[in-house]
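Deliverable D2.4 — example input (structure tokens):
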């Protein structure tokens, strides 16, 4: 029997489950909740205090889990009585699960569908709930989840900046999905080379830069063979390190679409915050100096206003 990990924060308390829940203990998968039962709020909080971040479901229950997520999406994000923290937990949990599953198997259509739904949840959370971006963005990542948290942050920043830049809804959808998956190519580097992500690019030597700068191409290579993945998403993943100065990579482009500029700027900014541990305010100051000429001044100013309006800086 095969199992798939899911985030504990995607399980809504007191809602009947249409799948079985398992926990992993001493190399075994132990059934925790039967089909049709509910997970009470007090038990859920107890598990969180024990720092249990994941449940597991049988692979054959993945479709049932997706139905469950769809129901929660409607019940949670649209409900003004649900606390903001619960909404953020749900959006973050579904997005983290999606990124983890796509990193594990980029060819899985099911995992990509999970990613699309997670991106939609994140869009809905941020678009419909004032202060949600501040709550979402301000969360610290566990040491082993910095890359995933960076991807979630880039997706969230892209959504709001795109919306404030009169980008169409379809283009916002593509940006949201691409934000979650933009660094998927890093998973195809060796374990040792993946650690280059945790360093400032200025600190990399020539050989290290050559290795690290493969990741946009590797991401494109992984996903472009899947016919169900929109070409615009793959293009944004491939272009997320490009800059209009021509100093980006892998093609050193000097002309970018607005969507390409948005994902590149959000990626550059958040890496300073999430990876290099700069404060959002200091990261903005650094970006205004270091990225001058790499993005249009209009977009940089709009991004600055956007961060201030959202209460991030």
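Example output (designed residues):
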């Amino acid at each position: 029997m095969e199992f798939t990990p899911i985030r504990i924060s995607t399980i809504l308390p007191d809602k009947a489950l249409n799948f079985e829940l398992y926990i992993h203990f001493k190399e075994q998968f132990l059934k925790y909740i039967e089909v049709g039962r509910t997970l009470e709020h007090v038990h859920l909080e107890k598990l969180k205090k024990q720092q249990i971040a994941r449940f597991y479901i049988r692979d054959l229950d993945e479709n049932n889990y997706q139905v469950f997520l769809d129901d929660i999406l409607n019940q949670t994000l649209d409900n003004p009585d649900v606390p903001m923290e619960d909404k953020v937990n749900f959006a973050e949990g579904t997005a983290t699960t999606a990124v983890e599953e796509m990193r594990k198997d980029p060819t899985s259509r099911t995992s990509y569908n999970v990613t699309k739904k997670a991106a939609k949840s994140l869009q809905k959370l941020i678009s419909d709930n004032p202060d949600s971006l501040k709550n979402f963005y301000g969360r610290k990542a566990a040491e082993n989840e910095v890359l995933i948290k960076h991807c979630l942050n880039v997706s969230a920043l892209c959504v709001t900046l795109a919306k404030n830049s009169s980008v169409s809804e379809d283009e916002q959808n593509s940006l949201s999905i691409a934000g979650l998956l933009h660094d998927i190519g890093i998973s195809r580097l060796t374990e040792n080379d993946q650690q280059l992500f945790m360093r400032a690019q200025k600190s990399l030597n020539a050989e290290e830069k050559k290795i690290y700068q493969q990741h946009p191409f590797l991401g494109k290579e992984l996903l472009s063979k899947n016919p169900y993945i929109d070409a615009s998403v793959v293009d944004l993943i491939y272009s997320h390190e490009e800059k209009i100065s021509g100093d980006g990579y892998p093609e050193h482009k000097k002309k970018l679409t607005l969507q390409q500029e948005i994902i590149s700027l959000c990626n550059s900014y958040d890496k300073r915050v999430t990876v290099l541990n700069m404060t959002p305010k200091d990261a903005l100051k650094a970006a205004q100096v270091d990225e001058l000429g790499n993005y249009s001044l209009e977009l940089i100013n709009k991004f600055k206003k956007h961060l201030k309006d959202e209460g991030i800086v």
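The chain has a mean pLDDT of 92.
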